[in-house]
Amino acid sequence: MSDLALVDRFLDMLAAEAGASPNTLAAYRNDLRQAANDLGSDLETASHDALSKLGAKWAGLAASTVARRSSALRRFYRFLVDDGLRSDDPSSALPQPRLQRPLPRVLSEPDVEAIFEAAGNKAASGEPLALRNLALLELLYGSGLRASEVISLPRGAVREGQPFLILSGKGSKERMVPISSRAEAAVKAWLTNVPTSSLWLFPGGRKHISRVRLFQLVREMAADAGMAPERISPHVLRHAFATHLLSGGADLRVLQALLGHADIATTQIYTHVDAARLVKLVNERHPLASRAR
After folding, report:
1. Known catalytic residue: 98?
2. How far apart are CA 75 and CA 94, in angstroms?
3. Options 132, 219, 238, 239, the catalytic residue
4. 170 catalytic per annotation
5. 188 has catalytic annotation
6. CA count, 13 A, side-chain hemisphere, 169
7. Residue 1 CA to chain centroid, in angstroms?
8. 82 and 136: one domain?
9. What percent of the chain has pLDDT over 90?
10. Structural domain includes residue 125
């Protein structure tokens, strides 16, 4: 069987059994294609020795890229072994770079207030696009939604008197997220400008607005607030949602559920971002804190 057919079969398995998204499948396909080019031979028959040489070929790549490609190959070879298409798994020869996960960029609460003030002032004019931008901002920061989740919201997603949304996020996993009264009001004001025939809350072109357009709009709102646009993105607003909730005393498990993280380890990065609050908590609440030295 050709590499192309095997990769297609592997991706079909990921979609059916792991619920992988189209973006994830495209990333796997690209990584496997690049690995095959670097090997100069079929993936199916690649030997342990052949894979061991990839580390040198990938020496100029970022550690995150090497780790992602190695991960794609490991999963591919496990699939071949599980399906009886290969008797051995040569993936132990692949490079395993040590990754140090970077801390997310975070906006301070005054930064967020400045963005909301600028967006709110524009929306006060009733101009439709300004109303749309405020609704987007309220959902990104107020509910911690991912960019892909915001842009693909159906027109009737936010209902009056219903303080939550049920979303299908990564891996088609459902989660419930809160909708503040501010977000509900902002969406309601914007909805009067959305055609009743639209399938989407934020229509654009033939479908909904794109991730790229959302990125541009968020940066424009930052510029309106006098902030450097490169400091902000939809994901930075999601990080701000998480960090500010944690600062306010939210439980890490609750935060995990709100963000839709499959693994608590992903959520724990926010404990590093908010280290100052944790030190203060120990100094004020630990039983020994009140004892004289």
Report:
1. no
2. 12
3. 238
4. yes
5. no
6. 17
7. 35
8. no
9. 32
10. yes
Q: Check whether residue 153 and residue 121 sit in a common domain.
A: yes
Catalytic residue among 146, 208, 219, 244: 146
Strand ranges, E, within 74-224:
164-168, 174-178, 203-204, 207-208
Establish whether 141 is a catalytic residue. no
Do 139 and 68 share a structural domain? no
Where a domain ends, among 59, 93, 127?
93
CATH of the domain at 32: 1.10.150.130
Domain identity same for 221 and 88: no
Q: Tally the domains of the chain.
A: 2
Q: Which of 57, 68, 170, 211 is catalytic?
A: 170
d(CA 209, CA 148): 10
Catalytic residue selected from 270, 285, 286, 291: 270
The string of pLDDT tens digits covering residues 71-84 is 999 999 999 998 88
Same domain, 118 and 185: yes
Q: Which of 75, 78, 235, 277 is catalytic?
A: 235
Query: Residue 136: is its pLDDT beyond 90?
Result: yes
The residue from 132, 208, 239, 261 that is catalytic is 261
Angle between helices 234-247 and 252-259 (to 10 degrees): 160
* Whole-number Å distance between alpha carbons of 36 and 59: 16
Confidence of residue 1 (pLDDT cuts 50, 70, 90): low
